[in-house]
């Protein structure tokens, strides 16, 4: 530590003494408690405020600099941010974790218990929302000026409890005890309209124009959360909108004597930001969801226009000041809303407005699954957003003329590309809208981006090939290595002789020179074992299930979905069980099979998979004949916090989706970063992870995307696999026998029947290859030196999958924005 930075720390209050004093002050002045009577939550709040005080200074400084320098700014629009707990990450990014720990110790406090106390904001479902959170952190780290816009859901993703083996959803009342990380901005508040009609009028130049008269208005109020970067003074802003009744509206009702009516309308307005919707239930078509999307998009676009007018000036340069990234199609209405604001509120003409709009937006696609592609019925649109429907028609008319001009006489193409799906109920295609309204479209892994061009957006890629890009996802090593796995991080820093890898993850490659170092191997194994012990302790207490840290920890943690094929994993478990029962354990290694993940509340099949896992667990864990060999455990309520317990403890990472279905995956990266080896298909980012870590350090199995598609086209007959593979048949039959369901032979029928008769995700086709691959896993695990070397090389070569790299690619190729480093104030 140089003397100037030591000085810096004391000057800005980063010293241990200052931390202790401020902690006690916050405990007293904010929580109204002194040390002796403080609850664990009081202690957490005092720690959070003490940390927040320290980041506010950086934040205000960043905001000031960005304002005066007119820095080009990225606006990330996302309906989800799965942030995870803030405290530990903010301490790491402030560089004061050790100081805070010592300060705590001197006050007689348990630092880890305080960190553990934080309830995470679960404002997202899974991969897409977590990606947005990683990107926000990396935007700050990479010094790119950015604002994240989203919704401040009062209830985030439900908490999952397991009762009698079934998933039970509990509301996530995350704001109950207050949120020390957000700053309410009552003055940053925008009106949002719904319903009503459009009318024409003559403007001051005698031009006929249209305007919207909404039937009712609500307000969106800003709540700001500062997002720190690592090793930088740059702090970006996450601005989430809360829906509130508009005062004037209330007042009107009050004046007419309808006090209760006014209160009711207030409640109704506030439902708009009440609850997060699941993302992997087939098309829900919920009106409230469309209202939510329009709500946050309208507030965000109005806010950007306000900022632009306040700093830069004329709206003609809007697209130079801002670039807006659409995180999937949920915010795609922003394209239309910007058009409306420019045309109706700011008097631009169509050509000007469209030129600005087209140069403002970029769109990321996150899934090819047809049931996840958003469409909204024209009728609903007409009722809720009549002006926007007009604008969509006009955008479409002009766009389809362009298509006709380019592809003479190809009306089938015009139909496919239209923003409106005709035939049957007319629907607005949000993905087509997003592509037409954007200057760049990207997929999230090489394979996915290729499939986007070849299938989903084939027509669009033929029209505008230059618009299509790939940016492979990444994850932040600060949260998923430094915070989640301090032991491994310390070992890496010690081995490399520096901690520069934390901001430049490619430098993990320096570990390669130590790949045969026996001392390092021993330390590496000790680190893994300690993490497994931690997880085992936690599991025992959370589920009562005992896991042996010496066994191979085989982990599948992600949302439950048929395409992710948790049932393929279960079939392997049942096969192991049967083999052991039949005395064929010679090629096995003792394994703990660990699952985590939520199922969308309305997704019956996914919930049945959870039940099956718990049912198999109950039998296996209570069978003394197999207990030396295997355990099955379901970790309830998989979220960011619980993920941080799992990744460090995994030996084997299950990434077994049907090739072509998982757009990227990001859990695959988090496991690998923590030294787990992957068993996986050639799907999503697995392909690139395997290339990076080396084929010899990755357990590959299964059909390729191409072969899977080919087989589907020529007629896939799962029952032929069932009939011809006696082990497969016996595994499925064992489920149907009632062994796992106290004699109920019908309980799992929907699942097994579906596998044998339809099997849309080709579980049976990949079953044999998966079993064989699992045998090579067991064999490798029996050679600890070899396994350790493979684990080490996975970490050494995973640098590319930092979200810093992803952000740099977006910045250079898509956003055309350069870093804007902030000097310390
Ligand atoms: C998810 N998509 C994909 O299923 C994952 O493969 C990917 O890693 C993440 O996005 C992040 O890109 C979704 O969650 C959604 F909503 F699009 F279905």
Characterization of the model:
The chain is an alpha/beta fold and 825 residues long. It has three domains: 1-69 and 86-119, no CATH class; 70-85 and 120-471, Rossmann fold, CATH 3.40.50.2000; 550-808, 3-Layer(aba) Sandwich (Rossmann fold), CATH 3.40.50. Helix content is 49%, strand content 16%. The chain has 34 helices and 24 strands. Strands 7-10-11-4-1-12-13-17-18 form a nine-stranded mixed sheet. A six-stranded parallel sheet has the order 21-20-19-22-23-24, sandwiched between helices. A three-stranded antiparallel sheet has the order 14-16-15. Helix 10 crosses helix 12 and helix 14 (378-384) packs across helix 15. The radius of gyration is 27 Å and the shape is globular. It starts with a helix and ends in a 10-residue tail after the last helix. Bound molecules: N-(trifluoroacetyl)-beta-D-glucopyranosylamine (NTF). N-(trifluoroacetyl)-beta-D-glucopyranosylamine binds at residues 126-128, 131, 279-280, 328, 366-367, 372, 444, 473, 662-666, 684. Its cofactor is pyridoxal 5'-phosphate. GO terms for molecular function: glycogen phosphorylase activity; pyridoxal phosphate binding. Its EC number is 2.4.1.1. It catalyses: [(1->4)-alpha-D-glucosyl](n) + phosphate = [(1->4)-alpha-D-glucosyl](n-1) + alpha-D-glucose 1-phosphate. Phosphorylase is an important allosteric enzyme in carbohydrate metabolism. Enzymes from different sources differ in their regulatory mechanisms and in their natural substrates. However, all known phosphorylases share catalytic and structural properties.
């Amino acid at each position: 530590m140089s003397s100037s930075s030591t000085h810096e720390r004391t000057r800005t209050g980063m010293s241990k003494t200052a931390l202790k004093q401020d902690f006690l002050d916050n405990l007293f002045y904010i929580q109204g408690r002194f040390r002796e009577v403080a609850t664990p939550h009081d202690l957490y709040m005092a720690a959070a405020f003490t940390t927040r005080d320290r980041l506010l200074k950086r934040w205000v400084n960043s905001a000031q600099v960005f304002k005066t320098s007119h820095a080009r700014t990225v606006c990330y629009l996302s309906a989800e941010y799965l942030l995870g707990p803030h405290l530990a990450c903010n301490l790491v990014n402030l560089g004061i974790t050790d100081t805070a720990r010592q300060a705590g110790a001197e006050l007689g406090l348990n630092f880890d218990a305080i960190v553990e106390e934080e309830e995470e904001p679960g404002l997202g479902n899974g991969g897409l929302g977590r990606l947005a959170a990683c990107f926000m952190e990396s935007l700050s780290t990479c010094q790119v000026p950015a604002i994240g816009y989203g919704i401040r859901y009062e209830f985030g993703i439900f908490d999952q409890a397991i009762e009698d083996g079934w998933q039970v959803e509990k509301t996530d009342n995350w704001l109950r005890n207050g949120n020390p990380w957000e700053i309410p901005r009552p003055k940053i508040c925008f009106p949002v309209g719904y319903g009503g009609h459009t009318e024409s009028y003559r403007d001051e130049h005698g031009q006929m124009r249209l305007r919207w008269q909404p039937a009712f208005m609500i307000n969106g109020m800003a709540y700001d959360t500062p997002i720190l970067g690592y090793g930088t003074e740059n702090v970006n802003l996450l601005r989430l909108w809360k829906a509130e009744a508009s005062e004037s509206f209330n007042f009107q009702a009050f004046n007419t004597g309808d006090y209760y009516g006014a209160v009711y309308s207030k409640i109704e307005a506030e439902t708009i930001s009440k609850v997060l919707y699941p993302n992997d239930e087939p098309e829900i078509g919920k009106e409230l969801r469309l209202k939510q999307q329009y709500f946050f998009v309208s507030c965000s676009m109005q806010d950007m226009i306000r900022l632009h007018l306040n700093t830069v000036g004329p709206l003609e340069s809007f697209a130079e000041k801002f670039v807006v990234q659409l995180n999937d199609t949920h915010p795609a209405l922003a394209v239309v809303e910007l058009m409306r604001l420019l045309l109706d509120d700011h008097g631009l003409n169509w050509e000007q407005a469209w030129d600005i709009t087209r140069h403002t937006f970029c769109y990321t696609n996150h899934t090819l699954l047809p049931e996840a592609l958003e469409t909204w019925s024209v009728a609903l649109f007409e009722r809720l957003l009549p002006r926007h429907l007009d604008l969509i028609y006009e955008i479409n008319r002009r766009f389809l003329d362009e298509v006709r001009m380019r592809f003479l006489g190809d009306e089938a193409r015009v139909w496919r590309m239209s923003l409106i799906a005709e035939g049957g109920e007319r629907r607005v295609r949000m993905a087509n809208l997003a592509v037409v309204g954007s200057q760049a479209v990207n997929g999230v892994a090489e394979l996915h981006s290729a499939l986007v061009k070849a299938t989903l957006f084939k027509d669009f890629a033929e029209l505008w090939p230059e618009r299509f890009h790939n940016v492979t996802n990444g994850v932040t090593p600060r949260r998923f290595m430094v915070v989640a796995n301090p032991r491994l991080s310390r070992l890496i820093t010690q081995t490399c002789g520096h901690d520069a890898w934390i901001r430049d993850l490619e430098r993990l490659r320096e570990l390669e020179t130590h790949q045969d170092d026996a001392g390092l191997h021993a330390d590496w194994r000790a680190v893994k074992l300690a993490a497994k012990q931690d997880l085992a302790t936690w599991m025992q207490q959370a589920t009562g299930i005992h896991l042996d840290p010496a066994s191979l920890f085989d982990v599948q943690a992600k949302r439950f979905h048929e395409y992710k094929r948790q049932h393929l994993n279960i079939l392997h478990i049942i096969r192991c069980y049967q083999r052991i029962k039949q005395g064929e354990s010679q090629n096995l290694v003792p394994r703990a099979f660990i699952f985590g993940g939520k199922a969308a509340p309305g997704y019956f099949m996914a919930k049945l998979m959870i039940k099956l896992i718990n049912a198999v667990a109950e039998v296996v864990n209570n069978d003394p004949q197999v207990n030396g060999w295997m355990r099955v455990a379901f970790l309830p309520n998989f979220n960011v916090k619980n993920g941080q317990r799992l990744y460090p403890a995994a030996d084997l990472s299950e990434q077994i989706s049907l090739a072509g279905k998982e757009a990227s995956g990001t859990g695959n990266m988090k496991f690998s970063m923590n030294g787990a080896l992957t068993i996986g298909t050639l799907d999503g980012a697995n392909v690139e992870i395997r290339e990076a870590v080396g084929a010899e350090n990755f357990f590959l199995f299964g059909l390729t995307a191409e072969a899977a598609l080919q087989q589907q086209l020529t007629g896939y007959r799962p029952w032929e696999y069932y009939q011809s593979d006696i082990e497969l048949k016996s595994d499925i039959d064992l489920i149907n026998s009632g062994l796992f369901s106290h004699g109920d032979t019908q309980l799992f029928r929907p699942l097994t029947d579906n596998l044998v008769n339809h099997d849309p995700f080709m579980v049976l086709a990949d079953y044999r290859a998966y079993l064989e691959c699992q045998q090579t896993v067991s064999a490798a695990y029996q050679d600890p030196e070899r396994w350790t070397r493979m684990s080490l090389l996975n970490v050494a070569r995973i640098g590319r999958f930092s979200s810093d790299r992803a952000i740099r690619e977006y910045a250079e190729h898509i956003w055309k924005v350069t870093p804007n480093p902030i000097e310390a104030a």
